[in-house]
Fold:
Amino acid sequence: MEITPKCVKIVAADEQGAYYARQSVKMMATINDTVACCTVLDWPRFQHRGFMLDESRHYQGKEFVYKQLEMMALLKLNCFHFHLVDNPGWRLQIDAYPRLTQFTAWRPVEYFWDWEVNETGGDFVDEGTPGAYGGYYTKQDIAEILAFAAERHIEVIPEIEMPGHNYETRAAYPELACSLKDGGTDKWELCPGKEGTYEFLENVLDEVIELFPSELIHIGGDECPKDRWVECEHCQAMIKSLGLESEEELQGYLVARIEKYLNSKGRRMIGWDEILDGGVTPTATVMSWRGINGGIYAAERGNDVVMTPMPLCYLNFYQTESREGEGLQIGGHIPFELVYGWDPYKGFSEQAKSHLIGVQCNMWTEYLKDMPTVE
Structure:
């Protein structure tokens, strides 16, 4: 990029590069719209420069997403990780399973923690119920968001959580939960011992794949409690029939089966670093959130890695020691200097560095119910 008194000359390998050069000119402009003369030679350090927004715990809506995509473009972030489903609400229209949005996109209280601990026990309500809080993205909404993102050279990667973080899914379709002798239910996971679970996941993924053009589809895979799988007759029968040795391997079977299904559709799987626990093929991309070691291990074994370690890359932590004016956050303190000074390559061997494809910051919204606080 050459800026002279007469003109701004941009030379780039493709339109995406030229677009980012224009963002640089925007950043360089002063308050009276002058730009200093200079020459800039620039290219991205990482191919994946991501931002994740949690829409399940608190629904923000399409206009808010547009604003964040605009800011991403200015900062040359190119991957929008759309966390659309989780325990407190399902936010994506799925035609095959209408109750996901007719029922579990809505709850009787707005604030996540009031819903989590209130006397209703985390109930959902039907769409149209007076006072209901929630919302979801229609397929038309998603198409418009995708078009908006594409104009800004941003890829939208949807996340459909499995097998944990599925309290809302089972509330809509209780047959997907484990069958327990005491009549109770597991905490929030799907039952990996029932073929109906795989039918459900594949049907949902079919619609997700039809809607989203991204090569990567995020399957979650994190924080799945398995203690009730020990008591579930379906899980134990599946473990026995497959010759598995543990509930951990049962989750590994589900992840591997879903990965194979996505691959058969021409897509690739990305998931939180727990997907390594059960063993995945080198075609899967690993998002390392439980520190840096999972990412280093994944890269050494040949998996592509996106580094997003907590708390360094988690924007929902306190940013000042005093915490004044920040409102209630999840806790912890991540000073700007610590984040800015972090080297994502630290700890990686020269061979493993080739598999570190990017970094990402995450915005979880357990405590962040209003849009200004999220921003």
